[in-house]
Amino acid sequence: MKKLKLFPKTFLYTLCLMLVVILISHFLLYFLLPGIYNFQQKSRLQKDAEDILQQIDGATDDERLTLVAGFASKWNANISVTYDGFSYETNVLGDLSKDILDPQAGTVDATIITDSGSNNIKISLAENMQGGADFFHIEKSFANGRGYISAIISRQQIENAVNAIVIILPFTALICLLISAVFALLYSRTLTKPIARISETTEKMKKLQPDIVCESNTYDEIGLLAANVNSLYQTLLQTISDLEQEVYKVEKAEMQKTDFLRAASHELKTPVAAVNVMLENMILNVGKYKDRDTYLAKCKVTTERLASMIKEVLDTSKLDTYNQQELVDINLADIVASVCEPFQIIAKSKGICLDLNLSNAFTVQFVVHRLERVLSNLLSNAVLYTPQNGTIWIYLNGRELVIENECDIIPADQRSRIFEAFYRPDYGRGRVTGGNGLGLYIVASILKAAGVSYEFVPSDNINGMAFRIKF
């Protein structure tokens, strides 16, 4: 049984259960039917005997004869009634009764099997000594002592009915067996068909085929199972998709870290090599390097720039972490105004106009020192690359912070790389200007970690560039 599939197993279980019910019902019918039928007939016979006793007591002679004849015809009986010296007798069974009953002598030529009495009516089940059917034998005296009734009722009808039912029992059992087999087959197919469809669908789901759905038109447990499988599969696909995206992000982040470390190594190698060359030549007293004071000062400047660059690199490596506990509500207008103060002095010294419009203030959730770092780097770039007598506009537009400055428009091919670490456009972002190529990389890293969108595009209002942060 354990190795059978669901359909044959369900069919066999159902068929066996129905066969047990059929067998038990037919056995009960075979054993209980004769007794029940005999009891019912005996109860009816007793009632009819009581009725005829009451009716004869107050009837005329003709009516008594009619009552006796009616009783004999109804029950297929030989009956003899003696009342007030008159005898009423009907022999439906023929002369058979003379062999087993002698009303004159009050004897019965039969074997009494059982006796039962109620209201002075004695009903005996007698076995005919000459063979043949058994009989009910009734004896009763009238209550006033004016007469006597005696009857022999054949049980042939009962025997015939019982025998007929017993004969048809094998046929009814066979018919019930066939019906049970058909029903069990239909029931098993109906029950297992949706489960088989679910099984076939889950086989396809194992291969992670898209758009696979368990179809079910029922609302029972099988329908609920199909719905749960569909929900589980969609959740699984979504989880796999999310994991693939996360893997892609992790791989991209690892590549960015690798590229960053490679670029950082390259950027750090140059000043280290320069300091090493100057020190080595000073030690060897080669040419102009004999002027040690001059080149020691240059070495100090180079090492300070190197230390600053190392600090920037270390700070940048921490930007991919974002602690939610550090988030606070910040009035954007207040923090922009605070960060702009030192840059207004620098801009004024370069003859640059810094136009600040923070009338549409709003609140954002951010890490304070990181937002200050973003604003500081953007303003530093704007001041650095705005020409003399140029203008820088800083304003709030809806939930957007916009920093625009007059400058040469950066070509599209360079804008696609502007946020890479240590990348400097050819037209001015060199080490001589003081830029190290990490400013916009840091800005992009902080905003991405915070989930804030941004763009760096040519301005629609002036001949220059605009940096837009959308909170």
Description:
The protein is of the alpha+beta class. The chain is 56% helix and 19% strand. The protein has ten helices and 15 strands. The strands form four sheets. Strands 2-1-8-7-6-5 form a six-stranded antiparallel β-sheet. Helix 7 packs parallel to helix 8. The protein is rod-shaped and about 170 Å long. About 7% of the residues have low confidence.
Helix content: 55-70%
Give the beta-strand count: 15
> What overall geometry do the principal axes of the alpha carbons give?
rod-shaped
First and last CA, distance: 66 Å
Instruction: Please identify the structural class as seen in this structure.
Output: alpha+beta
Rg over CA atoms? 57 Å
Sketch the major β-sheet. Answer: 6 strands, antiparallel
Unreliable residue runs: 96-118, 427-434
- State the order of secondary-structure elements, H for helix, E for strand: HHEEHEEEEEEHHHEHEEHEEHHEE
Biggest β-sheet: strands ordered side by side in the sheet: 2-1-8-7-6-5
Strand percent estimate: 15-25%
Mean pLDDT: 80
Count of discrete alpha- or pi-helical segments spanning 4 or more residues: 10
Topology at a glance:
Blueprint: H1 6-57, H2 61-75, E1 77-83, E2 86-91, H3 96-100, E3 101-102, E4 107-108, E5 110-118, E6 121-128, E7 135-141, E8 147-154, H4 156-206, H5 221-284, H6 292-317, E9 328-331, H7 332-349, E10 353-357, E11 363-366, H8 368-385, E12 391-397, E13 400-406, H9 412-415, H10 439-450, E14 453-458, E15 464-470
Parallel strand pairs: 10-12
Antiparallel strand pairs: 1-2, 1-8, 3-4, 5-6, 6-7, 7-8, 9-11, 12-13, 13-15, 14-15
